[in-house]
Design goal:
The chain is mainly α. 46% of the residues lie in helices and 11% in strands. Bound molecules: manganese (II) ion. Manganese (II) ion (MN) binds at residues 27, 31, 77, 163, 165, 167-168.
Length: 201
């Protein structure tokens, strides 16, 4: 059973002006599609064809590098699209807000920590908010790795991921990764992150 590109749950221009339309079209339609196609190629004729993406991530050390890179790319981008949206941003509320305050002190402190993790990730990678042993943590990963992978430095269930590859921001922000990491908080869908938080507990 082949993996497929999930439909974007909003229009390509829905995240303007923070994330521009052309970036979204290329990022979803070309980059994510390529991860899906290359993952299917790498798994063709192997047991991995019958596994869920989460099962593959949890056992990634036993797969070839093409599965790690493209399977990670597929998982990470599927999560990324789902935690953004139009009319979003602001600060989280409820249980998730309490957990953020308890883990980091405040919402602003979380933003600072995740932005720093993204800015200081050399080259390409991701900044993550994850649940580990029932508690929230922030980490970053190189390339298309993620906290679900058995090889991850910090393992857990990711509930928010921010793509810091240049392809995620270069057309609009050029070399200014910190500006992209300031703007992205305007399009984070905290209802979606809260749902992932509850599911991860
Ligand atoms: Mn990307």
């Amino acid at each position: 059973m082949a993996f497929t590109l999930p439909a974007l749950p909003y229009a390509y221009d829905a995240l303007e002006p923070h994330i521009d339309t052309l970036t979204m079209q290329i990022h979803h339609g070309k980059h994510h599609q390529a991860y899906v196609d290359n993952l299917n190629k790498a798994l063709a004729g192997t047991d991995g064809e019958n596994k869920s993406i989460e099962e593959i991530m949890a056992n990634i050390s036993s797969y070839p590098m093409a599965v790690r890179n493209n399977g990670g790319g597929h998982y990470n981008h599927s999560l990324f699209w789902s935690v953004m949206g139009p009319n979003a941003g602001g600060a989280p509320t409820g249980e998730l807000a309490d957990a953020i305050n308890s883990a980091f002190g405040s919402y602003d402190a979380l933003v600072e920590k995740m932005s720093t993790a993204g800015v200081t990730r050399f080259g390409s990678g991701w900044s993550w908010l994850l649940v580990k042993d029932g508690k929230l943590e922030v980490t970053s990963t190189p390339n298309q790795d993620n906290p679900l992978m058995d090889i991850a430095e910090v393992k857990g269930t990711p509930i928010l991921g921010i793509d810091v590859w240049e392809h995620a921001y270069y057309l609009h922000y050029q070399n200014r990764r910190p500006d992209y990491l300031k703007a992205i908080w305007n399009v984070i869908n905290w209802d979606a992150v809260s749902a992932r938080y509850k599911a991860a507990l």
